[in-house]
Write a structure and sequence with these properties.
By secondary structure, the chain is an alpha/beta fold. The chain contains 14 helices and 18 strands. Mean pLDDT is 93; it is low at 2-8.
Length: 456
């Protein structure tokens, strides 16, 4: 990793301890990552970040998956620099430009024929949450229905409508008046089957049968719904990949009941799962696709893409001041070009398998590793207490040990995240261009941490 020679070193008064104390004193109590990853970043390149005291860490959080190519990739830096040097606008509301047209053309070319040939794209305020809100409004407008189906374990953002779709009850406790007419269905999670079945993934999926019955049964109590919202791999819910057969079944169910399928690919889109989009693992084609994070090349950008016949809302039905972030479009266009030219999704698939092999070996050494799972470079290790079982006979998640693993990894120079039920899942979202050598180093570091904690 290179340094920043053009900038003088930070003075003693601005070392990490001072800046972290300032953050605690002035930022809101809602801040999250700094509580467990107390780092003050100075420079960054690829997998690596350097803090203000000169310490280098490996970043397997990468902006919660935003940084598909890692920090400050040369093609992104060059695209931003060229855009500014040419005097092109940074912000245009929803007015068009050559940069915007090129971005739209390239993005649409990545999609299945059903969306590519007759699809429409809408630029949202630059967050995944806002794009989810736009998708909900479009679905209700196009169908004339009110109800929405979401899934246990799902995460779709923290704005009012998106929060109503969230599986985690914690953030909802203090917020009254969440959006009505949201019905939750079980998401297939064989390790902790939401229906209490222990037949494993070889058994017929009860989650599929449950959903099918609910949407077809005239006595189910559920009125016809506008949309079904899902993630092809649940991230915050604990890195839970949807079985391909279940994805296909949900697509068929939505189609047969006049329900629009909204696929939230904010975290999975653009190569993270080993394919350009997570829905390709079904495969299934969504009616409405939600994208953010990676598409902005490290800068804020969010869109929805949907079937053209759904384009029934009126001008101004969903707007936002910062939907014209041309810097993000320039960087996103460069990112997409690199992803395709270098077959980066294939690297994500291969490196995900390499990680999984390492973690499977680690699992064989330690009973507290309940399950290793993921898809591509969206990886999770569920930490459990093997001696404490729930009513279904499954080991309880061990959030205390998972936090200890995260803290020890951070001390050793590795940033990882936690998620899932009770925060008991160790999560990795490394750059999609990670090398085999880097995978081996990271896996070895996590292995050493687990070995040490096991002997403590």
């Amino acid at each position: 990793m290179t340094s920043s020679p053009s900038r003088a070193p930070f003075p003693q008064a601005l070392l990490a301890e001072t800046l972290l104390a300032s953050q605690v004193a002035r930022e809101s109590n809602a801040r999250t990552y700094p509580r467990r990853l107390p780092v003050v970043m100075d420079t960054a390149e690829g997998l690596y970040v350097r803090d203000v005291s000169g310490r280098v860490l490996m970043d397997c959080l990468c902006g919660a998956g935003t940084l598909a190519l890692g920090h400050n990739h040369p093609v992104q830096v060059a695209a931003i620099r060229d855009h500014l040097t040419a005097g092109r606008p940074m912000h245009t509301l929803d007015l068009t430009s050559p940069t915007k047209d090129a971005f739209v053309t390239a993005l649409m070319a990545t999609l299945p024929k059903q969306l590519r040939d007759n699809g429409r794209i809408h630029f949202c305020s630059p967050s995944g949450s806002d794009a989810v809100e736009a998708a909900l409004k479009l679905a209700k407008t196009a169908t004339g229905r009110r109800g929405i189906v979401s899934f246990s374990g799902g995460y779709h953002g923290h704005t009012q409508g998106a929060l109503s779709l969230m599986g985690n009850r914690g953030p909802k406790h203090a917020v009254a008046g969440a959006t009505a007419d949201v019905q939750f269905l079980p998401y297939p999670f064989c390790y902790r089957c939401p229906l209490g079945r222990n037949g494993g993934c070889d058994a017929p999926c009860g989650c599929e049968a449950y959903a099918r019955n609910l949407l077809h049964d005239p006595e189910s109590g559920l009125a016809p719904v506008a949309a079904m919202v899902m993630e092809p791999v649940q991230g915050e819910g604990g890195v839970i990949p949807a079985p391909p057969a279940w994805l296909r079944a949900m697509g068929e169910l939505a189609n047969n009941t006049g329900t629009l399928l909204i696929m939230d690919e904010v975290q999975t889109g653009w190569g993270r799962t080993g394919k350009m989009y997570g829905f390709e693992h079904g495969p299934v084609v969504p009616d409405i696709l939600v994208l953010s994070k990676a598409i902005g090349g490290g800068l804020p950008l969010a869109v929805i893409v949907y079937r053209g016949e759904l384009d029934l809302w009126q001008p101004g039905a969903h707007t936002g001041t910062f939907r014209g972030n041309l810097l993000a479009m320039a960087s996103g266009l460069a990112t997409l070009g690199y992803l395709r030219d270098h077959d980066v999704p294939a690297n994500a698939a291969a490196m995900g398998e390499r990680f999984t092999e390492h973690f499977a070996a680690l699992q064989r050494r330690h009973r507290f590793i309940g399950e290793v799972r993921g898809r591509g470079l969206m990886l999770g290790i569920e930490i459990v207490d093997p001696d404490q079982l729930d009513a279904a006979g499954r080991p309880l998640g061990d959030s205390e040990r998972s936090r200890a693993i995260q803290a020890a990894c951070f001390k050793s120079g590795l940033m990882i995240e936690l998620g899932g039920r009770n925060g008991a899942v160790v999560r990795l979202l490394p750059p999609l261009i990670i090398t085999p050598e880097q995978v081996d180093v990271i896996a070895a570091m996590i292995g050493e941490v687990c070995d040490t904690l096991a002997g403590a």
